[in-house]
Design brief:
The chain is α/β, with parallel strands linked by helices and about 625 residues long. It has 18 helices and 30 strands. The chain has 2 domains: about 260 residues, 3-Layer(aba) Sandwich (Rossmann fold), CATH 3.40.50.300; about 250 residues, 2-Layer Sandwich (Nucleotidyltransferase, domain 5), CATH 3.30.420. The strands form 7 sheets. Strands 3, 4, 5, 6, 7, 8, 9, 10, 14 and 15 form a 10-stranded mixed beta sheet that branches. An 8-stranded mixed beta sheet has the order 23-24-22-21-16-17-18-25, sandwiched between helices.
Length: about 625
């Protein structure tokens, strides 16, 4: 009885004793083993591999800090930082924790791909997390129970997971991709933060690559903290430099295929002017320098790819050179490589800019067109359509914009559309192309008629679409079939498509992404068309407590936006096809040799899996 009492008191004392004096980074150095499934460098953890991670991790141990924010590039090791924090609290300071991912599916994926190997390969955690295959185990995919605490994994889109018991440690992963609201409950990050209120020693860790400037959630959190950038000591003068693309100097060449070769890559110190290469800078010490050191309770960190050991400067520079002229691709570079928010340019001042850019086509189809797609917008008294040519790098050519007057509940109207979609358009050499895929808007007053027409013509790759607003959804979001007609219906993330179009309209030189238009009003590309094409802009609006970018009409409500919608639908048709343009070009060349009159260069019909479009590369 005496032994049992002593044992009981020992357990009580252990449970209320303060955690050992060890930081997260020290714990990782002593215990972590990186798994081959989740790391390109499996084996024992070393803080020396990426020294900028140490301060981020150890901020968790600072009693004066409540929130830690990481705005980083991709491949900076943020997932391993999260894993080290989770492992530390399971082993050293057990308590209730929550990890929020953008969706429930991503939460499940994180559990399987990141946490299972973490628990399996780190001995001190393997001893505390029960085998989930055990019948008595409390270890499930979304809930991990251990002595003294638990870890819940939830999706930001799942209100039920965010409205449960109190938690002390809240981790938000890729918060820039969180929805505005978890169902009808409101801001998912705010819901998670409310769960920590009862703990005086709460910690909130938010990480993400950034998105669009002024509306990006991780930027907002970063600016509310110390705003610390990882800087490297100049090998010459000893000053500390935030290494970024503006100080990078290099020589390069570009071949006929657009491939870049770079060499003599150096960074020029802004203080002394000395130039050193990647390896010289990497071999110097680094430290964080804060732009807002007076911030209380929040440490915020920024890391870009130039200081990440998993990026080579040559790869960064080549990617930047290739993508800087295409706003859509440059945005990805800035977000995921430079780790900086993307600043949207202003809207077009007027349609004159695009009108002046029109050009003479030598034939119906200019050289460079490889695939034709079409788009149809359904109005109460007419059908509006556009035929668009696509070439390499998604360079586009407007081919024809027109109207088919007639009520959409009339068979004659749909027959006229069918005839138009059968048109063969010709190159200067006489070879003709047919339209390979068409998207027809079904969101108006004639949904049933659209479904019936598209169902009858699915063999011609004529598909119904419905637009869905909201940021973060890909242009091709979902594919389902209508109940009565069994017609294929594609749900489009139209905001993503509009951003892509506006970005490409700003490309000033022919090449990848550039938009060509014919200098011929009879083809439909007149002033009215271009007014409609630039009829919307992104504006900042507050939704459920968060600032969001929303597409709205530029000026008068009478401005028609059908040209913008049509180009969006034509892009969706191209993405449904997802053609191998190299193979298409070969077939066109063979057709010219063989004297083939007309070609339909569409690939096999799109595949689908679990309701999400899976596109084929076959021709």
């Amino acid at each position: 009885m005496k032994k049992k009492t002593i044992s009981l008191f020992r357990r009580i004392i252990k449970s209320i004793a303060p955690p050992p004096q060890i930081t997260v980074s020290q714990w990782a150095e002593q215990n972590r083993v990186l798994s081959s499934e989740s790391s390109a460098e499996p084996g024992k953890w070393s803080n020396d591999r990426a020294p900028y991670q140490v301060d981020i991790m150890d901020s968790v141990n600072d009693p004066l800090i409540e929130k830690i924010v990481m705005m980083t590039c991709s491949q900076a090791g943020k997932n391993e930082i999260i894993n080290n924090i989770i492992g530390y609290f399971i082993d050293i300071d057990p308590c209730p924790m929550m990890l929020i991912e953008p969706t429930l599916e991503l939460a499940e994926d994180y559990s399987k791909r990141r946490l299972d190997p973490l628990f399996r390969d780190t001995k001190v955690l393997r001893e505390k997390i029960a085998d989930k295959k055990s019948r008595t185990s409390n270890n499930t995919i979304l809930n991990k129970v251990f002595p003294g605490g638990s870890l819940s994994l939830v999706g930001a889109n799942s209100p039920s997971g965010l409205a449960s018991k109190p938690i002390r440690i809240l981790i938000g992963d890729e918060i820039g991709r969180f929805p505005v609201s978890a169902g009808d409950e409101g801001d998912p990050l705010g819901l998670g933060e409310k769960r920590t209120i009862t703990f005086f020693n709460r910690k909130k860790i938010f990480v993400s690559t950034p998105g669009i400037k002024d509306v990006c959630r991780i930027e907002e959190e970063y600016l509310g903290g110390t705003q610390e950038k990882w800087c490297k000591k100049c090998p010459d003068c000893g000053s500390y430099e935030y290494i970024n693309i503006h100080g990078i100097k290099f020589d390069y060449t570009k071949d006929e295929k657009g491939n870049y070769k770079v060499w003599n890559i150096v960074y020029k110190c802004s203080h002394c002017g000395a130039e050193f290469d990647e390896f010289d800078w990497n071999n110097t010490e680094g430290k964080y320098i804060a732009d807002n050191p007076s911030a209380e309770k929040v440490r915020s960190f920024h890391v870009n790819a130039f200081v990440s050991p998993w990026w080579r400067w040559e790869d960064i520079v080549v990617t930047w050179l290739k993508d800087k002229k295409d706003p859509e691709k440059h945005k990805v570079v800035k977000n995921t490589i430079f780790g900086e928010p993307w600043e949207e340019e202003g809207e077009f001042e007027s349609e004159d800019i695009l009108l002046e850019r029109r050009e003479k086509y030598p034939a119906e189809l200019p050289e460079g067109v490889l695939i034709l797609t079409a788009a149809v917008d359904v109005q109460d008294d007419r059908l509006e359509y556009e035929v668009v040519g696509y070439g390499k790098g998604e360079e586009t050519w407007g081919i024809e914009k027109g109207l088919i007057m007639g009520a959409p509940d009339s068979k004659e109207t749909w027959q006229l559309l069918s005839d138009k979609l059968d048109t063969v358009y010709h190159f200067e050499n006489g070879i003709g192309l047919k339209i390979s895929c068409t998207c027809v808007d079904s969101g108006g007053h004639f949904t049933g008629e659209v479904y019936k027409f598209c169902k009858r013509n699915e063999h011609r790759r004529i598909f119904a679409i419905k637009g869905m607003g909201g940021s973060g959804y890909p242009l091709l979001y979902k594919l389902y079939r209508s109940k009565e007609e069994n017609a294929a219906v594609f749900i489009l993330g139209v905001d993503t498509g509009k951003a892509k179009i506006m970005g490409r309209l700003k490309i000033k030189e022919p090449g990848a992404g550039y938009c060509h238009y014919p200098d011929d009003d009879s083809r439909g590309y007149d002033r009215i068309y271009f007014k409609g094409l630039i009829s919307e802009k992104l504006v900042r609006r507050k939704q459920r407590g968060q600032i969001r970018l929303i597409w709205e009409k530029v000026a008068a409500a009478t401005k028609r936006n059908e040209p913008l919608d049509l180009r969006n639908y034509a892009q969706a048709a191209f993405e449904i096809l997802n053609p191998n343009l190299e193979e298409v070009e070969k077939r066109l060349q063979n057709a010219a040799i063989l004297g083939v009159k007309a070609l339909n260069l569409a690939p096999k019909k799109p595949q689908r899996k679990r309701g999400v479009v899976k596109r084929s590369d076959e021709i």
